[in-house]
Design goal:
Protein name: Serine hydrolase family protein
Pfam family, one: Ser_hydrolase
Order of helices and strands: EHEHEHEHEHEH
Shape: globular
Largest sheet: 6 strands, parallel
Strand order of the largest sheet: 2-1-3-4-5-6
Organism: Kribbella speibonae
Keywords: Hydrolase
Radius of gyration: 15 Å
GO molecular function: hydrolase activity
Distance between the termini: 15 Å
Helix content: 25-40%
Number of helices: 6
Number of strands: 6
Length: 183
């Protein structure tokens, strides 16, 4: 049984977000990060929240997979850069922190995260019409992180307003990532 660490984006993931639905279906196998603030995120606080959630998840299973959405992708990248290690990482819809639409007034500390290779098998999923990240930038992030990249046509920011429900296609991609892990 694999344990999952859930890393939502700014303002968290509401009840209809695919991430919350997956978390609910995984039950005790899932641990959501608990930062001091979802709406005024500070990178150091979020990285510490990832570590706490990872430690909790590791107590549940030796295989721990990070499932990050939006700003959570950058928290994951910063956690990995600080010597974090996991079995795998699913990175969905990372925002371009240099994009004019990025909320630098609320999440400016995330703009300093460098893109460097991640220490585990990873998959980045992005949409071709994400308002917070172009496909070119998403591909650049995937290449820098040494993550496989899967682009989905016209699915917005892959969040609640994308109406993905349980997002079975995302689950399929996650299952493929896990099935191809080295033994």
């Amino acid at each position: 049984m694999t344990a999952f660490v859930i890393l939502p984006g700014i303002d968290g993931s509401d009840d209809v977000h695919w991430q919350s639905r997956w978390e609910q279906s995984w039950g005790d196998s899932a641990v959501r990060i608990v930062p001091a603030s979802w709406s005024e995120p500070e990178l150091d606080d979020w990285v510490k929240a990832v570590q706490r959630a990872y430690d909790d998840a590791l107590g549940r299973d030796d295989d721990v997979v990070l499932v990050a959405h939006s700003l959570g992708c950058w928290a994951a990248a910063a956690w990995f850069a600080a010597a974090g290690s996991a079995t795998a990482a699913l990175l969905v819809a990372p925002p371009d922190t240099q994009h004019p639409g990025f909320p630098s007034d609320r999440a400016g500390t995330f703009q300093t995260v460098a893109t460097q290779p991640l220490p585990c098998p990873s998959l980045l999923i992005a949409s071709t019409n994400d308002p917070y990240c172009t496909t070119a930038r998403a591909t650049t992030f995937a290449n820098a992180w040494k993550a496989d990249c899967h682009l989905i046509d016209n699915a917005g920011h892959l969040n609640s307003t994308s109406n993905l429900g349980d997002w079975p296609f995302g689950q399929t991609l996650l299952n493929e990532l896990l099935a191809n892990l080295p033994t």
